[in-house]
Design goal:
Helix content: over 70%
Distance between the termini: 8 Å
Largest sheet: none
Strand content: under 5%
Length: 162
């Protein structure tokens, strides 16, 4: 359930980057490439340290820390004043996403019996996809009504509560 709730927050953030860059920060959409590069490169870098982090901290603690970090970074996105700040914050988020995904998968693989593991994994995947799609649709509408920055604050609250 928590993982699905996370996707409600993260999906909202994903759909509102372009409006944040173009409408709020008044920079060209080409900045989106730099943002994606920052997040993807940090995800790759964090993957290199992943085995050590999971072994030392354990999957439940990794989930708690990464969710708290993601919530904080999303809240900080609501206050950015320049595109480079978005790049820095998403670089930080990238460090959190890969360990979060790995920790959730670790728990599914280790704490679910073999008889139902496939169904649990399928349910988890369906939950992620559905929550992400719903949040993207709702975020777009809410962005027009309450503003993009307020949606980031709401998404931060959703991720933090998860």
């Amino acid at each position: 359930m928590s993982a699905g709730v996370v996707m409600l927050g993260l999906g909202a953030v994903n759909v509102l980057f372009v409006p944040l860059l173009i409408n709020e920060l008044r920079v060209p959409a080409t900045w989106f490439g730099a943002i994606e590069l920052a997040q993807t490169s940090s995800m790759i870098l964090s993957a290199a340290l992943l085995a050590t982090v999971l072994a030392r901290a354990g999957a439940p603690r990794v989930i708690t820390v990464t969710l708290a970090g993601a919530a904080l970074n999303i809240a900080l996105l609501a206050g950015v004043g320049d595109a480079w700040q978005v790049v820095v914050l998403l670089f930080a988020v990238g460090w959190l996403i890969t360990p979060l995904q790995a920790a959730v998968t670790t728990i599914v693989q280790t704490d679910t019996s073999a008889e139902v593991r496939g169904r649990v994994a399928a349910l988890l995947s369906s939950t992620f996809s559905t929550a992400s799609i719903v949040s993207m649709a709702v975020a777009g509408l809410l962005g027009d009504v309450v503003g993009v920055r307020n949606v980031f604050l709401g998404a931060s609250l959703v991720v933090g509560l998860s």
